[in-house]
Structures are given as structure tokens and as C-alpha cells.
Amino acid sequence: MKTPTNRTEDRRLIARLRARDETAAHELAERYGSRIYQLALRQLKNREDAEEVTQDVLMKVYRKISAVRGDSALSSWIYRITFNTAMSRLRNSRLARAAERTPGGDEDRLYTPRQPADWSNMPDEALLRLQLQQAVVTALQELPEIYRAPVVLRDIEGLTTEEASNRL
């Protein structure tokens, strides 16, 4: 339980942190670093992750010290940040591991993204192109001459409307 002396020390530490006193940042790390680490380790069960969370939390506290209202103990605020940061890291690492797995759920194989299929040189492409050409030729032959010439000039030869009308 916090004693009035600890509360006073916390208020002084908060004031020094708000003033961006570097010695206050070191004191913050000394006073709360091991407790932050223990809480993070309890949640994450991984030393490296707990160390990173500890560093993240200390930086967040230093950067966001102006958000402390003072109606509760500094330690409560720090532990809430620690818990939220650890849970966020846990969620993100689970999502990352899930994304590495195969879409079919085979947990033994890692998912390796494949290149999209190259549809540009499919075996039946030449046949389809020939069939399309024949269909266009047949359709053009069925058009009256007055409509056929503008269609050929604009859509087949690629002339602008002005160029096609000059030719006609």
C-alpha cells in the first residue's frame, strides 16, 4: 500500500518528468522497471518480449506523463499501461504467427506467398484471339457500308473522330 511519503515522492517524480529532467527518467526506470518487467513477464511468458514491453512502457510513461491526473497512484497508471502494452504485444504476435501459417490451417508448414499466375501466355489464348478476330470480321461484314467504315477507322485502326471524318 502506498504511504503518504511514497505519494509525495511520486508527485515530485511526476513534476520532474514533466520538466523533462533526465535524472527523473532514470529514477522512473529504477523505481518501476523491475515491477513493469515482472508484470509483462507474467502476461507474455517470454523474457525478450517482457524486456521490450518494459522499455516501451518506460518510454510511454515519459512521453505521456502530462496525462497523469493525480487522482490515483502513479504505479496504478504505470501498471495499466504495462498490462495494455503486454496484451497488445500478445495479440499482435498471435496475429503474426497466424498470418505465417498456411491458409488451410496446417500448423507444421509456414505459409509462403506465391506469385500471381501469369495468364498472358495461356495455351488457348491464340485460339481465343483467332475466334474473336473471326467474330469481329463477321460482325463488320454484316454492317452496312455507311456504318462499317467509321467503325473500322475508329475502333480497328484507332483514328480519332476528326481523323476518321477527314478520311471519310
Secondary structure topology:
Elements (H helix, E strand, L loop, with lengths): L3 H15 L3 H23 L2 H17 L10 H27 L24 H18 L2 H12 L4 H7 L1
Provide a quick synopsis of the model.
With 168 residues, this protein is mostly helical. The chain has helices at residues 4-18, 22-44, 47-63, 74-100, 125-142, 145-156, 161-167.
Plain-language structure description:
It is a single chain. With 168 residues, this protein is an all-alpha fold. The protein has helices at residues 4-18, 22-44, 47-63, 74-100, 125-142, 145-156, 161-167.
* Helical run tally: 7
Helix/strand class: mainly alpha
For the CA atoms, what is the radius of gyration?
35 Å
- The ordered H/E elements are HHHHHHH
Spans where pLDDT lies below 50 across 5 or more residues: none
The total beta strand count reads: 0
Q: What's the shape?
A: elongated
First and last CA, distance:
97 Å
Largest sheet entry: none
Report the helical percentage.
over 70%
Instruction: Tell me, rounded to a whole number, the average pLDDT.
Output: 82
Strand content: under 5%
Comma- or semicolon-separated keywords:
168 residues; mainly alpha; 7 helices; elongated
